[in-house]
Amino acid sequence: MVPGVSAGDEFAALDNLPDPVILLGARRAVVFANRAAVDLLQASYRERDLAQSFRHPLVLEIADAVLGGLPERSAEIDLLLPVPRFLLARAVALPGEGPVRAMLTFRDMTDSRQVEQIREEFVANVSHELRSPISAIVGFIETLRGPAREDSAARDRFLGIMAEEAQRMARLIDDLLSLSRVEATEHVRPREPVDVAAILGAVRDLLARRAADRKMEIRLELEENLASIPGNRDELSEVFHNLIDNAIKYGRAETPVRVVAQAVERIPHLGVAGLAISVENHGDGIEAEHIPRLTERFYRVDKGRSRKLGGTGLGLAIVKHIVSHHRGRLAIESAVGTGARFTVYLPGRS
Ligand code: ADP
């Protein structure tokens, strides 16, 4: 039995509310605390001052304010125990003759605050990513207008760099648009039948030149008669484009990139039948500690290297969203010094 809470209470119906509710009487005494409030306070000493069960100064302050005559007060509070939480506490005066003078309610805002923090971080990252190419372009414009005005060799070189920086911004904006498009549709699973083998062939053709520039070859090893799966053709093209492009970027020159597609009876962790498509490259690989974070937006193992190779840091975030849009799975394996393998599992028709 929780201290101070007796069964058959006249306010017991409030026990069914998911949010904590505390009713206060004169001198801040706890008249009733519902079950959620008892969990929150970890103890609720009925008839005693609220301060004996809940010592948070802001909560006591808003309680005092409404008991002192204000109609309503609220406060945002951080609780560290038993788990860190962020709550909106609200006190309302309940004027009248009865024993209850005020009501305190608490709403758990932890999740929405986390969403807000992620959004703020994202905006800060995007601004930062756009600022550096813009500063570079502005800097070169000034140089071309001033000291390098008559220097045609410098002009050509600077224009080349400016074009690259402008392309980098364009790529970043394309990736941001892709990401928001996928996020917007993520809750509805795509249902059109798609031919993954055809998609892989088209992506290979598109990237063959880039691979050849690094003396690499994209080898497709497709099981015969792969069944079509429900999906979105453009999105899946983007997945394999990003994965094969990464394999070319981060793979060792003069080594092959292997793309293997086969049917599987049970997708690990999902347990349903579907396809497994893996993209494998030789190279430095990825240290284990980075692997779980690779699909975070703007996460790169080596920022400088990714930038130099034209990366935006969004490719794998897009891959992850598209794969989850298809209710599939992405698995990343790597042996440092040997290479990396990215496997996309896509459920078949159910
Ligand atoms: P980027 O635009 O930087 O390539 P991605 O989201 O596609 O962004 O990838 C995130 C990071 O994951 C890269 O910066 C790189 O550090 C790492 N990475 C991705 N693919 C590979 C790979 N095949 N081999 C080694 N590292 C990789």
Describe the protein.
With 350 residues, this protein is an alpha+beta fold. It has 3 domains: 12-108, Beta-Lactamase (2-Layer Sandwich), CATH 3.30.450.20; 110-185, Orthogonal Bundle (Helix Hairpins), CATH 1.10.287; 189-350, Heat Shock Protein 90 (2-Layer Sandwich). Helix content is 40%, strand content 22%. The chain is built from 8 helices and 12 strands. The protein has helices spanning 35-41, 57-67, 110-145, 152-185, 196-213, 233-250, 303-308, 315-325; strands at residues 21-24, 30-33, 72-79, 85-93, 102-108, 192-194, 217-222, 229-231, 256-264, 274-282, 329-335, 339-347. The protein has a 5-stranded antiparallel sheet. Strand 4 and strand 5 form a beta hairpin. Helix 3 (110-145) runs antiparallel to helix 4 (152-185). The radius of gyration is 29 Å and the shape is elongated. Bound molecules: adenosine-5'-diphosphate. The site of adenosine-5'-diphosphate has 20 residues, from helix 6 and helix 8.
List keywords for this structure.
elongated; 12 strands; 22% strand; 350 residues; five-stranded mixed beta sheet; Helix Hairpins; Beta-Lactamase; binds adenosine-5'-diphosphate; 3 domains; alpha+beta; Heat Shock Protein 90; disordered N terminus; five-stranded antiparallel beta sheet
Number of strands: 12
Average pLDDT over all residues: 91
User: Based on helices, strands and strand pairing, what is the structural class?
Assistant: alpha+beta
Please give the alpha-carbon distance between the first and last residues.
49 Å
Instruction: List the uncertain runs.
Output: 1-8
Radius of gyration: 29 Å
CATH architecture type of the largest domain = 2-Layer Sandwich
What's the tally of helices? Answer: 8
What is the N-to-C order of secondary-structure elements (H for helix, E for strand)? Answer: EEHHEEEHHEHEEHEEHHEE
The CATH top-level class label of the largest domain: Alpha Beta
Bound molecules: adenosine-5'-diphosphate
Describe the biggest sheet? 5 strands, antiparallel
**Tally of individual domains:** 3
CATH superfamily of the largest domain: Histidine kinase-like ATPase, C-terminal domain
Residues in helices, as a percent range? 40-55%
Shape: elongated
